[in-house]
């Protein structure tokens, strides 16, 4: 008999427990959603402040070159939402050629806007202003996206969307802060982490004479231990990435190429050491695939081996001012290139060495390279690093 009473009591308690749970769970979820939305609103205001900081930095830089702030602010605000539509990819034939056309038109629009907003800017300063506007646009776009999803979560009372946003916020805030730092670096014309490939190329050029057969992209011919080196990079010290694929394609038409060596920044994983120089094979170039495709096509057509030498860094390091550690890594990469040339080519060979990356603050000669670099800050254990591609 006591045994039966215990079972009945246990069943009664479980019924009460489940009834209370069913009654309270939706309210607890609603309370958590309201608390989460409060945190999201606070984060949106923080991102808005960072976007405005980027915008102010860009406007200060633009107004130094001809027009007062009141004349450029409205057009600048409108241009912050400028976009480019990717070509249709369902029919892949010629998609990269169409993409290149869209990117060329986009670049011309940026050049036109800078010419209107800053008519007195010199060519190198104008190139930096283009990058400055890119940085401000990135900050503003990130703020708008987070605001959109926050308002959508609030409107639909979606607890799942609130949770997703909360999980992504630590990453998004790190990106936003990095975009502000990038905008300020562009304003000051300082080299950024993404420029390590271009800096390596400049060290290899030395005092050789350079030519600009492709707009914004230069090459210099030099000798090394009986080999002819054709050093390719974007034109500096303005902020440019150039068209290295197009220039390599043209150089391959002029003479027989025996090897192509490419140097670029590469994304490091958490726990990896920034500034580590590693080697591999393939076309080491980020951004839209148009230039990479050209390089791969040339390599396949002429059966030219492709070597890749990359310098590890985080996404934040790629768009922030170049640190002393990464500047030293560019010196190491230059020595690795020389070693690769000696080991994998023979006297009389022609080798293309392409330094990929943004050339802001990086000229074409050793004398044009900056001498002082900030020391990389010590990383906190809680610091988050991105796994996105470098900002170009």
Commentary on this structure:
A 7-stranded mixed beta sheet has the order 1-2-3-7-4-6-5, sandwiched between helices. The chain folds into 2 domains: 165 residues, no CATH class; 176 residues, Rossmann fold, CATH 3.40.50. 56% of the residues lie in helices and 12% in strands. It contains 10 helices and 7 strands. With 392 residues, it is of the alpha/beta class. The longest helix is centred in the first third of the chain and has 61 residues. α4 packs antiparallel against α5. The protein starts with a helix and ends in a 37-residue tail after the last strand.
Task: Give a short summary of the structure.
This protein is of the alpha/beta class. It has helices spanning 2-62, 69-79, 95-117, 123-156, 159-188, 196-205, 244-254, 290-302, 315-319, 324-344, and strands spanning 210-214, 217-224, 227-234, 259-267, 277-281, 306-313, 350-355. The chain has a seven-stranded mixed beta sheet, sandwiched between helices.
């Amino acid at each position: 008999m006591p045994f039966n009473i215990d079972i009945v009591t246990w069943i009664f308690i479980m019924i009460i427990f489940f009834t209370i749970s069913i009654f309270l769970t939706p309210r607890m979820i609603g309370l958590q959603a309201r608390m989460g939305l409060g945190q999201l609103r606070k984060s949106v205001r923080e991102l808005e402040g960072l976007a405005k900081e980027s915008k102010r930095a860009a406007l200060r830089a633009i107004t130094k070159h001809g027009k007062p702030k009141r004349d450029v602010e409205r057009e600048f605000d409108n241009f912050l939402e400028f976009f480019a539509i990717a070509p249709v990819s369902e029919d892949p034939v010629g998609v990269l050629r169409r993409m290149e056309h869209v990117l060329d038109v986009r670049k011309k629009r940026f050049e036109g806007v800078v010419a209107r907003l800053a008519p007195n800017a010199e060519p190198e300063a104008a190139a930096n202003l283009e990058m400055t506007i890119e940085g401000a646009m990135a900050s503003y776009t990130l703020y708008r996206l987070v605001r959109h999803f926050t308002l959508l979560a609030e409107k639909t009372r979606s607890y799942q969307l609130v949770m997703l946003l909360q999980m992504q916020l630590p990453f998004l805030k790190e990106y936003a802060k990095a975009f502000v730092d990038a905008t300020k670096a562009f304003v000051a014309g300082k080299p950024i982490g993404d420029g390590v490939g271009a800096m390596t190329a400049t060290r290899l050029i030395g005092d050789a004479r350079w030519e600009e057969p492709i707009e914004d992209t230069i090459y210099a011919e030099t000798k090394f231990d009986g080999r002819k080196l054709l050093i390719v990079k974007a034109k500096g010290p303005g902020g440019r990435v150039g068209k290295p694929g197009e220039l390599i394609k043209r150089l391959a038409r002029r003479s027989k190429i025996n090897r192509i060596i490419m140097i670029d920044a590469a994304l490091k994983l958490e726990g990896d050491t920034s500034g580590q120089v590693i080697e591999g094979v393939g076309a080491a170039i980020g951004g839209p695939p148009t230039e990479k495709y050209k390089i791969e096509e040339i390599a396949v057509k002429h059966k030219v081996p492709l070597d890749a030498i990359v310098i590890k860094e985080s996404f934040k390091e790629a768009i922030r001012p170049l640190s002393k550690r990464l500047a030293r890594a560019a010196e190491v990469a230059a020595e690795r290139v020389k070693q690769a040339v000696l080991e994998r080519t023979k006297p009389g060979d022609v080798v293309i060495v392409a330094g990929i990356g943004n050339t802001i603050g990086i000229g074409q000669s050793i004398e044009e390279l900056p001498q002082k670099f900030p020391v990389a800050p010590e990383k906190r254990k809680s610091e988050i690093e991105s796994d996105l591609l470098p900002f170009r």
